[in-house]
Automatic annotation (TrEMBL):
Keywords: Lyase. It comes from the Bacteria. The lineage of its organism: Bacteria, Bacillati, Actinomycetota, Actinomycetes, Kitasatosporales. The keyword Oxidoreductase does not apply. Pyruvate binds at residue 56. Pfam families: DHDPS. The active site is at residues 144, 169. InterPro entries: Aldolase_TIM, DapA-like. This is Dihydrodipicolinate synthase.
Amino acid sequence: MSSVAFETERAALADVVAIPVTPFAEDGTVDAAAHRALLRRLLDGGITTLTPNGNTGEFYALTPEERRLVTELTVDEAGDRSTILVGVGHDVPTAVASARHARELGAGMVMVHQPVHPYVSQRGWVDYHRAIAEAVPELGVVPYIRNAQLHGDRLAELADACPNVIGVKYAVPDAARFAAFARDAGLERFVWVAGLAEPYAPSYFSAGATGFTSGLVNVAPAVSLNMIEALRSGDYPAAMKVWEQIRRFEELRAANGSANNVTVVKEALSSLGLCRSEVRPPSRGLPESERAEVAAIAAGWSL
């Protein structure tokens, strides 16, 4: 399948790529009704790219059955209002099964989570992604890169073998490394998504990104859309005004090695009465002092 066939998917990546939370009910199971309501809120807020089973969705804390449920709920709720980028990962057979499930449901793309393994070689990284991409040639494939050691030419090698590798979620916190990696891999060949969300979006856009992922978007879709509109028009002062607006919220998420990355988002949603704040181990709820601060920030955005 030629890259032309992935025009819709490529356009969807050059946007706010929302990573929805997975809300839990009082008994600890996935709260399907709350999940649907949160998805509708994103769609009604103008978000058109959704990533079920992303890290803000607590991918690694969900069972295989729950990951399938989250994908099914998202595809069903979104209908034709959104392009769906399903997070897949773990061992190769598990990732392939998840990708095929996404294909059966009608999703357009899969995002391949960074391989969680203590020993990742450059060639092995290519082999891992190639096995998944070749299993679903009809789907766009988006590697999620958090490995600062990975060379851009490895990505080019992967795409040579698998033309359905169309975009990259780049999440190494180094704008200069991103600029070099993108140019080594092929700046025009892929859609570059700033994988560290709004705090890194301005610097990554200046180096060639055209989309960014967001967990904050769960709380305030308009804020994320304001930032991408500013970046698309090249208005960096306006983008940095949004950056200043979200800075404290994102600092709370990033503190202590991003320990409370999801927790802060769910706490904000809880303060707005949209879902319970519970997260699963190894994440944990916020201390009381930070809960009040998060609620105040969320209230300010909803004015």
